[in-house]
Amino acid sequence: MAKVSVLGAGSWGIALATVLADNGHQVTVWSVIENEIKMLQEYREHKDKLPGVRLEESISFTTDLEAAITGRELIVMAVPSSFIRSTAKQAAPFVAKGQILVDVAKGIEEATLMPMVDIIEQEIPQASVAVLSGPSHAEEVGRKLPTTVVAGARKKEIAEFIQSIFMNQVFRVYTSPDVLGIELGGSLKNVIALAAGMADGLGYGDNTKAALITRGISEISELALAMGAKSETLNGLSGIGDLIVTCASKHSRNRKAGMLIGQGMTMKEAMDEVKMVVEGVYSAKAAIVLGEKYGVRLPIIEQVNDVLFHDVPAKEAVTNLMLREKRTEHSSLEWSN
After folding, report:
1. Active-site residue (options: 189, 209, 256, 285)
2. In angstroms, what CA-CA distances link 315 with 26, 91, 192, 193, 203?
3. Is 268 a residue of the active site?
């Protein structure tokens, strides 16, 4: 049994807390929101973000960050990506040298172009930081439906420790040394999912969805490889796997926001309606800057940015994609004649 704290009491943090408790670990969930902690203590359920998922009596809840961190063998960073830096900064004084932190948020910081693990390492240099990601909606994890993810760390033993902490009969964990690839796959797929949702909102069909997923992973992979990630990662759980589920699932907040935009809402109206952080909106601008920095063309992500930030109608963005200049599908393939 390990002592584990989950920082962040949103749907994903609560779902992971149930996995950890089921595995027999001593689990504490921290939130800065006092009313949220009171609700969890009283009802043993997050009625707003994960209704119907009952929480074990063994799970404790606190607003005391120092108490949540001190003496813990593993800290799970489950706050939204836009709060990772501020939470890491608050947590830093309480983190011991070598203490293991695993990030489960997905995103790229717009101002610095840094993924989440890099941000945590910058703010808490004494920690050993890893990432856990993959096709894993909280609603299904909370219901104990079979799910598979990947734990990435720079040291094999840390990835294997996280694997041992989380893995059970319904939550399978693989390991990988490609931290950057896991993070880029997990964050950039949210931007493509916004496009998939827009297509759904416009009433387009399976052909359109398949095209966006296929060309979307091509864009993500080209950028990620240019940045130093590995192709195996983009072809795996945190790449194509996470992209498929986020583009297709009814649980996807990015797809839902995109669908509302496709139906005519503004970005702000869509985000207000979803009532949860839409990570793809924050990653979209960063992705464009990264594409320019590494000389990678990102046509789908460019059109998503135009819709989100430049008032281009979603239908016009699709037309812009369809009428781009003619190209071969894979430039690396050569004709035999």
Report:
1. 189
2. 50, 44, 16, 16, 10
3. no
